[in-house]
Design brief:
Layout (H helix, E strand, L loop, with lengths): L1 H11 L5 E2 L3 H7 L3 H13 L3 E4 L2 E4 L1 H4 L2 H18 L5
Antiparallel strand pairs: 1-3, 2-3
Length: 88
């Protein structure tokens, strides 16, 4: 979730740093702010994001993964459609 969130927000903000541990996201995944920041440090260690304190931007490598991110998004949309499809 964190990797995709940083990817999409970096894309929308044209590479401006985004908040890594927003309170809504922490509540959504039921993790503490500290746990989210720990996970962000792991992503930074893998070269997926560039972490600056509690803010991050997607790395160039992660931004190049746009086709995979769009495919994952579409898969989620399709699953949602299938789950709400009404049949007679």
């Amino acid at each position: 979730m964190l990797k995709r969130r940083i990817f999409w927000l970096s894309k929308v903000t044209n590479g401006a740093p985004v908040d890594v541990a927003h309170p809504y996201d922490c509540q959504y995944v039921n993790f503490t702010r500290e746990k989210i920041l720990e996970l962000a440090k792991q992503l930074a260690g893998q070269g997926l994001i560039k972490l600056e304190g509690d803010r991050a931007i997607a790395s160039d490598w992660l931004m190049q993964q746009e086709p995979a991110m769009i495919a994952a998004m579409q898969k989620g949309v399709d699953a949602g459609k299938a789950a709400t499809k009404i049949t007679a």
